[in-house]
Write a sequence for this structure.
């Protein structure tokens, strides 16, 4: 695989770096340069990859830690079962995710894209290293042997199969897999079809589509880029220090490299103030670069390591995922030429301009306050979550005016209900209306048995005194009580007077 560098400089403001002027794709073969940020990303990627792959197979209290069971309409999160009627919790979580994203982007930029996104974690920490290990990486001279390419794709197939396993287990559970590894194809034909589709999509994405997922498909990155401001921490190039660019002469580069190696020697002497091998003359200091040039030597390594092929020296761009690969590359070059690190670094526009970055500003305060409020609402709702979920269903019978068994003038209505048991034990439930309403509930049996983790339907007949209706509609609270009279769950419904 050749390390391709475009001969012409594309218009980065209107043309993607991975696309030429004719709209044809430029294949991005990003180099891997190790530095402190790459090490931090690798340390973070290990638990993230383990979480992505293992969480569908983890059980908490005998229940999946994470599973979206579409067949039975259940969602398991941390061993807790949520039902479709629990949609309000997910609405709050969605709002919290949106506001939390706004807060994170306002403070740290696209940290999710470069550090936490599953696409970039697997691409940069799994698939690309495997490709470089087998094929030799970009810049490798000569034609790639066919057996190496075949071996690379074979490894890609194994990895994609494992990821497809984890993705399928999210929907059908770990029990459908033999030893949590091989899907039982005969018992789960539909899941097998889903596995195949997911496998092809994963292999296509990480084997060929790659950077185009970030630059063309994903709307999340574009949304984040639009939310940046001058105080946001981003991967930035210090143009004041780096411009104008100028290539470093070979003699200067050799002198700087020699000076760096000697200065790092453990046999340093105090007389010269630098590391010198005993008995040798002091090393020559690197010749200073002409004052007309900045610190950027225009080596282009920051472009060749970028997974989206942008030139960070053109400023913050839509395709930048803030992965810090260019920081590691530039820091390594600065070390070699004897310049201080930080020509490319995490900084805000205000910091690059010599001004102080403000963390507390109106938008961050607003996002933080809204996030705290949403977290409080979610905690309050979760604490008030009952064992019994009562959900009124659509009323098909028309209410009529009729005397109850005691001879009172009442409105008789049939109220179909869905009863969901969220607990791990069977519940015996009786349906009641508030005592102040003096209504009467008639059912085929006084107590209904709702199995643990199960769902049943019931249609109680209610007699509500006609005098309780001040308008044509009456909102009533349905209560599910156990044999001791404890309220296990409650729901509101409306009864229309005939």
């Amino acid at each position: 695989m050749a390390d391709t560098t475009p001969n012409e400089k594309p218009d980065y403001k209107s043309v993607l770096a991975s696309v030429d002027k004719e709209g044809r794709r430029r294949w991005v073969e990003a180099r891997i340069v190790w530095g402190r940020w790459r090490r931090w990303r690798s340390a973070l990627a290990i638990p993230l990859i383990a979480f992505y792959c293992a969480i569908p197979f983890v059980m908490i209290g005998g229940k999946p830690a994470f599973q979206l069971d579409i067949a039975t309409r259940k969602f398991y999160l941390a061993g807790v079962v949520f039902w479709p009627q629990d949609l309000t919790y997910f609405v709050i979580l969605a709002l919290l995710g949106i506001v939390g994203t706004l807060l994170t982007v306002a403070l740290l930029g696209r940290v999710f894209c470069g550090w936490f996104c599953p696409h970039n974690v697997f691409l940069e920490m799994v698939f690309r290293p495997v490709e470089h290990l087998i094929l030799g990486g970009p810049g490798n001279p000569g034609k790639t042997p066919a057996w190496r390419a075949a071996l690379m794709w074979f490894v890609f197939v194994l990895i994609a199969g494992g990821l497809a396993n984890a993705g399928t287990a999210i929907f059908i559970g770990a029990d459908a897999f033999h030893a949590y590894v091989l899907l039982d194809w005969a018992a789960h034909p539909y899941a097998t079809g889903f596995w195949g589709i997911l496998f092809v999509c994963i292999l296509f994405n990480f084997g060929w589509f790659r950077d185009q997922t970030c630059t063309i498909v994903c709307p999340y990155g574009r949304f984040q880029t639009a939310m940046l401001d001058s105080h946001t921490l981003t991967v930035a190039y210090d143009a004041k220090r780096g411009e104008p660019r100028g290539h470093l002469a070979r003699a200067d580069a050799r002198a700087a490299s020699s000076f760096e190696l000697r200065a790092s020697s453990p046999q340093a002497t105090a007389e010269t103030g630098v590391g010198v091998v005993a008995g040798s003359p002091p090393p020559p200091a690197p010749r200073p670069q002409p004052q007309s040039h900045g610190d950027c030597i225009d080596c282009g390594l920051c472009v060749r390591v970028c997974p989206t092929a942008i030139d960070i020296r053109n400023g913050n761009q839509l395709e930048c995922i803030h992965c810090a690969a260019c920081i590691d590359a530039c820091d390594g070059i600065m070390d070699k030429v004897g310049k201080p690190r930080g020509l490319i670094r995490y900084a805000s526009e205000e910091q690059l301009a010599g001004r102080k970055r403000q963390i507390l500003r109106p938008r961050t305060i607003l996002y933080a306050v809204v996030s705290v409020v949403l977290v409080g609402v979610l905690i309050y709702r979760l604490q008030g979550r009952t064992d019994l979920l009562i959900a009124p269903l659509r009323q098909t019978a028309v209410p009529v005016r009729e005397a109850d068994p005691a001879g009172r003038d009442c409105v008789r209505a049939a109220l179909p209900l869905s009863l969901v048991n969220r607990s791990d034990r069977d519940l015996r439930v009786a349906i009641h209306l508030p005592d102040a309403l003096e209504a009467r509930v008639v059912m085929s049996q006084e107590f209904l048995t709702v199995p643990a983790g199960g769902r049943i339907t019931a249609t109680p007949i209610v007699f509500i005194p006609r005098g309780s209706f001040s308008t044509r509609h009456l909102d009533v609270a349905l209560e599910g009580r156990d044999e001791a009279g404890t309220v296990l769950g409650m729901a509101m419904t409306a009864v229309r007077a005939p």
User: Anything to note?
Assistant: The radius of gyration is 33 Å. Residues 236-347 form one domain. DSSP finds 14 helices and 20 strands in the chain. Residues 146-172 form the longest helix (27 residues).
